[in-house]
Amino acid sequence: LERAGALAMHAVQGELAPAAHHWLLHAAERAKAVFAGAEAERFLAQAAEFATSAAEQRAVWERIGDLRRAQTRFGAAALAFHHALGHTESGSTARLGLRIKLLDASLRSGVLRLPDADAAIATLIEDAGEAGSAWLRDALRVAASAYLHAGDLARAEEHALRALDAARGAGDAAGLVRALLLRTQAGTLRRTLPDALPVLAEAVRVAAESGLLRELCDAQTEYATELCRQGRWTEAITEGRQSLRHGEAAGAVGAVAVARLNLADLLLRSGKWEEAGEHLENAWTLSERFDFPHVRVDVLVNRALLAWTRGDGAKVREPAQCALEQATAHGMVAAEQAARALLALTLIDEEATEEARRVLDASPEPQEQHHPTWSDDHELTVAARARLLAHQGDPASAAGLLTAALEEAAEPYATALLQLELAHILRDEDPAAALRHARNASTILARLGAQPLLLRAQKLLTDAADRCAPC
């Protein structure tokens, strides 16, 4: 990197435009290879200044956009793609590709929102269909992803299935893997896909057979997540570790950061503090070094969740507050919900019920989809609202809220979390029911190996048994 940068600067100082452009692009690639995102973008911006044609300008700005998108800086990526479009001929296939990237970045950043984007999506799919199947597959995947993130799960699944069929027909292995992942995400959340594991297993197999390490990392991360949902934690940890190895082998820093988060989350819940902490800190380092704001927020949420799970309320507030501020700034609805819930639970324990109420009342509307790694952000919010109701003297409403959520809970961990809250709230009103819920939660958590929450469950179980003894 140092040698490439020195050669680039030598050409810049000599005002040798073609050479400067070439060496700046080379230096940017070297910077990307060592995860130096800021340096890579700086070299690319300088390369744009020394571009000698519209085609070179377009190529550089597209690379800047791709870099920013990989860093999850979607608003900045949209600006770069917009610049690239300004240097692209009308009607060219390059222009269509940029339109697809621009729409994707604009939707992910919140600059463009559904349903305002419906017409743009429909037009893009129509134009892509006329240009050829490869463009159509890309456009369909962007549409599926956009609808998924907006919570329009029916249309997300519809477009994912269309992308899936198109990828199969074209023999597009990378497109097939990505479409399979979108299909499982939408189908799982809609509950139209009873068991996502066979679909995800196909994604893993296709990626492995095709030597697509980046896609293999993503597929194994999703596979591990589904194993978690089904309570198969030991297998999930194994799959998560393999996912991380493949992401590192591919040099896919964004995928590595997500894989580390996914693995750390599971390890934390299993009580494997040291290994989980290493993955969290590594994910944090990547988020700082390569500017991954979404990863940074998720690390903060995990830190707060760990402290809350261990009953260390004093260590919840700072990461939860930081996560809340950053999640709100980046439009991360699920992370914001989780941060607000954890902060509110801590405030209630501190008797600051009015402040807790304000924190919860400002929560964004729940979405159909949940956090990409875990879906207990909703259960945490329900638990916080129920705890607040009970604290304000309305345990019946609190129990009703938790019972309704329990009927909808699909994952063992979320079920146990809600059972614990019911045991906590009913311990005075109905000790026998509290004992039953504490036992159920303890059984689930013991089977999962979720040691931190199991310790809380066992304390509640002992307390409930003592209260129920005279019954």
Account of the 3D structure:
There is one protein chain. With 471 residues, the chain is mostly helical. Among the domains are: 292-376, no CATH class; 394-471, Serine Threonine Protein Phosphatase 5, Tetratricopeptide repeat. It has 24 helices and no strands. Helix 2 (17-33) runs antiparallel to helix 3, helix 7 (118-131) packs antiparallel against helix 8 and helix 13 packs antiparallel against helix 14. The longest helix is centred in the N-terminal third of the chain and has 18 residues, at 133-150. The radius of gyration is 24 Å and the shape is elongated.
Helix and strand arrangement:
Elements: H1 2-13, H2 17-33, H3 37-49, H4 54-70, H5 74-85, H6 93-109, H7 118-131, H8 133-150, H9 153-170, H10 173-190, H11 197-209, H12 213-229, H13 233-250, H14 253-270, H15 273-290, H16 293-309, H17 317-329, H18 333-349, H19 353-361, H20 377-391, H21 395-408, H22 412-426, H23 431-448, H24 451-468
Short structural description:
With 471 residues, the protein is mostly helical. Among the domains are: 292-376, no CATH class; 394-471, Serine Threonine Protein Phosphatase 5, Tetratricopeptide repeat (Alpha Horseshoe).
Structural class: mainly alpha
Instruction: Give the low-pLDDT segments.
Output: 367-375
Number of strands: 0
What is the H/E string? HHHHHHHHHHHHHHHHHHHHHHHH
Q: Report the total helices.
A: 24
The N- and C-terminal alpha carbons lie at a distance of 73 Å
Radius of gyration: 24 Å
Tell me about the largest β-sheet: none
Percent of residues in beta strands: under 5%
Helical content, roughly? over 70%
| Coarse morphology | elongated
Query: Mean of residue pLDDT?
Result: 86
